[in-house]
Specification:
single chain, alpha+beta, Immunoglobulin-like, 3-stranded mixed β-sheet, 3 helices, 7 strands, elongated
């Protein structure tokens, strides 16, 4: 009777084709994985305004900025001579970014998908406020507070302005002593 072959002498079983194919796909998948590139460009009229997105400064317009998440962004635009503009800009997700398609577009599509958004904003010139209006508002606030001294008279042209020190408020008068009225028939004391 011939001896049975030992386990060590048997040839190793060959993996089936499906396993080899799965291994090849797993190795090649990172090389062909998809990607979504999201970019937001902010332009203003006039250009050259400072831009804050979600309270982070990103530059002056026109400016482009990469982002990761869709949703509503707080955009604040600041420029000298113009009113500061703050807007809540919605950035909705495209159809391919909804579940379960987002997994496919982010990981399996073998090319890059670019999602570019452009936000155009118009700025309004700042309203010119006359200096007399600002001074009158300050004097109204001073009178309403009641604790500051009256404003100093205007200084003639050519003379240096001397600041007036703020004086502390005068001490409050002591409360008056009120005596109860004397009982009827009681003689009044003499005043010296």
């Amino acid at each position: 009777m011939p001896a049975a072959p030992s386990r060590s002498s048997r040839p190793a079983p060959r993996p089936c084709r499906a396993v080899r194919l799965a291994a090849a796909v797993a190795v090649c998948l990172p090389a062909v994985s998809g990607c979504v590139q999201r970019r937001m460009t902010i332009r203003t009229n006039p250009p050259g305004a400072l831009v804050y997105v979600d309270d982070y400064q990103i530059g002056t317009t026109p400016v482009s900025h990469d982002f990761v998440y869709y949703g509503t962004r707080k955009i604040r635009i600041v420029k000298d001579g113009y009113e500061t503009l703050t807007v809540r800009q919605p950035i909705p997700a495209p159809w391919y970014e909804y579940f379960p398609l987002d997994f496919v577009t982010e990981n399996l599509v073998p090319w890059e998908i670019r999602d570019e958004r452009v936000v155009d904003l118009a700025m309004q010139p700042a309203a010119a406020v006359p200096p007399e209006f600002i001074v009158s508002r300050a004097e109204q606030a001073r009178r309403a507070a009641g604790s500051l001294p009256p404003p100093a008279p205007p200084v003639p042209a050519g003379q240096p302005a001397i600041p007036t020190p703020l004086l502390p408020a005068p001490p409050a008068a002591p409360p008056a002593l009120v005596l109860p009225p004397p009982a009827p028939g009681t003689p009044m004391p003499a005043v010296p």
